[in-house]
Amino acid sequence: MATLLRKIGLIRLHNRDTEDPKHHHNHRGGGGQQSASLRGKGGGKSSGHKQQHPPGGSGDASPGPGKGKGKRAPELAPRDKPPQPAAGAAGAAGAGGPREPATGARAGPGPTGAAAAASGSLMPVARQQHCTQVRSRRLMKELQDIARLSDRFISVELVDESLFDWNVKLHQVDKDSVLWQDMKETNTEFILLNLTFPDNFPFSPPFMRVLSPRLENGYVLDGGAICMELLTPRGWSSAYTVEAVMRQFAASLVKGQGRICRKAGKSKKSFSRKEAEATFKSLVKTHEKYGWVTPPVSDG
Q: Distance between CA atoms of 81 and 286, rounded to whole angstroms?
């Protein structure tokens, strides 16, 4: 009986050696592995199957004691890897091509675009406010200087309390002139003029016209328009003051032989702003073509 059992064991060992070349190699290497395979039939078979791995597999690379950890490593590795971009996107990036913006960025202008549009719309408002401040400061100084005049050459009244619309009274002209004699004979205390200051004053001239009395000659035209080069954009300078302009006008009246109109009917007709503006535009075009002649102050 014992002989029969040994033969059966040898037959099984022979079959196992022929089926598993690796085990056969280990069996030839030493008797220690043969005795280990004889201890447990089931344990020998399971260990034999566990050692069969495809070449280059992760099982061969992992050490024996860490077999459990070696099996979980391939499952955890993909979690640690960063997400890979799509093939098309990666190709475009590698080729140096431009990346498409996000879909949300296409929906409308970003904060920078909105801020630029807002700043663009606010620029004219800021410029207008700056011009208003410059004009106001200049005119306030002009009023103070006129109020300090010792000879009371001119005086100013604001139209409807507006700093930019003045009625100026010219109280004096050359006392040797015929105009001065006309003023005495007609009891005219002053020549009234209106000055309106544009938004970009003092860099542009005011519009000045005569209101009363109705004058003839003296470079005063229809509607009360005044023919003076310094009142045009070409002849104006920001250094000119209202006082200087009025003194130049007084000299022009005398030089041009200005007189107070005494004709019946015509003397009562008042000047109009619309007529004055049309006349001034026409004379500017004429003098730009043929030149200007303005009498100096010394000739007054």
A: 86
| Phi, psi for residue 165 in degrees, rounded to 5 | -140, 110
Q: Among the options 225, 226, 227, 246, which is catalytic?
A: 227
Tens digits of residue pLDDT in 64-123: 444 444 445 444 444 444 555 444 444 444 444 445 444 444 444 444 555 545 555 555
276-285 long-range contacts (CB < 8 A, ≥24 apart) are 276/209, 276/222, 276/223, 276/224, 276/225, 277/207, 277/223, 277/225, 278/223, 279/221, 279/222, 279/223, 279/225, 280/207, 280/209, 280/221, 280/225, 280/226, 280/231, 283/221, 283/225, 283/227, 284/232
Phi/psi of residue 194, nearest 5 degrees: -120, 135
Q: What are phi and psi of 157, to 5 degrees?
A: -130, 135
What pLDDT sits at residue 159? 96
Model confidence, pTM: 0.57
Q: Give the DSSP H or E segment for 112.
A: helix 111-147
Q: Which of 255, 234, 258, 236 is nearest to 245 (CA)?
A: 236
Active site residue 227: yes
C-alpha separations of 42 from 21, 46, 244 in Å: 19, 6, 125
CB 250 within 8 A of CB 258: no
Nearby residues of 171 by Cβ (< 8 Å), 6 or more positions away: 152, 153, 154, 155, 189, 190
Question: What type of residue is 285?
Answer: K
Task: Give residue 45's identity as a one-letter amino acid code.
Answer: K
Which two structure tokens, joined as six digits, stand for 173?
């002209």
Q: What number of residues does the chain have?
A: 300
**Integer Cα distance of 136 and 155 in angstroms:** 18
Where helices occur in 186-241 by DSSP H, the ranges are none
Mean pLDDT of the chain: 73
